[in-house]
Design goal:
Blueprint (H helix, E strand, L loop, with lengths): L2 H9 L8 H9 L2 E4 L3 E4 L2 H7 L6 H6 L6 E5 L35 H17 L9 H7 L4 E4 L11 H10 L3 E6 L4 H6 L6 E5 L5 H8 L6 H12 L5 E8 L8 H11 L3 E6 L21 H15 L2 E6 L4 E5 L2 H5 L8
Helix pairs in contact: 5-7, 11-12
């Protein structure tokens, strides 16, 4: 291997491990690539809150500062093709890319973290002269305090996740890791846990699961069940994340409650589907009418609370998401004390 190639492998400055056409489309959508398999993109709440707009539901529910949050992923590929996902699914645009193939050599965790911080600062730099921007928030935004590893793909594909979490924590950055709940072995291997661990819970049973998430791997539902068993025993803040689509998976609160009892999360986020981006692709057979109203989300969340014994606690209108807490202790401790 030449010296230049060796440096690229260490630094993560190589060409993105994504088909060129897809990479071009993602860049037009505002993705900033870091190394070969990581990326960040400005969250609407990050830039909006800089200008005095609404903050993310995580600010209301858990106290995170939206203007100091990086939205990112260390692994762009995904083994699901969720119907409601707003992201690009390669097969839908004629790109034959096996997203599940391992790179063989993965970028260094410290370099990924440094690259994501750099790109986040590049994103917010354009708001320095914006007359609507809050000067104090803009200054703070240059020193990110949170990262949401949920931008696209399945983060647990990245085999050095524990080291990556360590690297973020050493920078004083809290970590919110969102997984689709199918990579059980990767969960078991974690020696460092995120500040808050999410698992996407998108169906109450196997049949609805297959129709909703359209898995690309075998036995995904069985893996998901096994994942919940491991998830339930982890010593960190744990969250179920639900995205509800009318006429598809917004059914059977009783069976969802059984999954809640199995996974024993501290919190359950009940979110309404939004008909945007990739979800508008005609091949997915979704429509605007399948977006639940705020009233419908709250009613389903309250039914879920009654079935599971959890406490209906809050609702973030702009994000269309309700919060359930496991008990009064979880409710009282939901605001996280972060470093300044």
């Amino acid at each position: 291997m030449g010296e230049e190639a060796a440096v690229q492998k260490k630094s993560g400055d190589g060409k993105p491990h994504v088909p060129e056409t897809l990479a071009g489309m993602m860049k037009k959508q505002g993705y900033h690539f870091v190394g070969r398999h990581s990326a960040t993109k400005a969250c609407g709440y990050t830039v909006g809150s800089l200008k005095g707009g609404p903050t993310c539901y995580k600010h209301k529910f858990y106290g995170i500062r939206s203007w100091r949050c990086i939205q990112a992923t260390p692994a762009i590929g995904c083994n699901l093709a969720c119907t409601f996902c707003w992201r690009i699914i390669p097969e839908e645009i004629g790109i034959n890319w096996n997203e599940l193939n391992a790179l063989g050599n993965w970028d260094d965790p410290d370099t990924i973290v440094e690259g994501l911080i750099r790109e986040h600062r590049r994103i917010v730099s354009g708001y320095k002269g914006n007359e609507k921007a809050d000067a104090a928030r803009w200054k703070e935004a240059n020193y990110p305090a949170h990262v949401a590893l949920s931008l696209t793909g399945e983060p647990l594909f990245y085999p050095k996740m524990s080291q990556l979490l360590d690297a973020f924590h050493k920078h004083g950055i809290s970590t919110f890791l969102v997984t689709n709940g199918t990579i059980v072995d990767a969960l078991r291997r974690l020696t460092t846990l995120p500040t808050q661990l999410y698992v996407s819970v998108q169906a109450p049973n196997r049949d609805v699961y297959e129709k909703t998430v359209r898995p690309k791997t075998l036995n995904a539902w069985s893996r998901f069940q096994e994942f919940l068993e491991v998830f339930s025993k982890l010593d960190t803040r744990r969250v179920f994340r639900m995205t509800l689509v009318k006429g598809l998976n917004m059914v059977d609160a009783k069976s969802y409650a059984e999954l809640i009892r199995k996974g024993s999360p501290d919190y359950v986020e009940v979110k309404g589907f939004v008909f945007v981006g990739g979800s508008r692709n005609p091949s997915r057979n979704l429509s605007y009418s399948q977006m639940p109203s705020g009233t419908e989300i709250i009613e389903f969340a309250e039914e879920l609370a009654a079935e599971s014994g959890y406490l209906y606690t809050d609702y973030h209108e702009h994000s269309k998401v309700a919060l359930l807490c496991r008990d009064s202790s979880a409710k009282d401790s939901r605001i996280i004390k972060f470093a300044k």
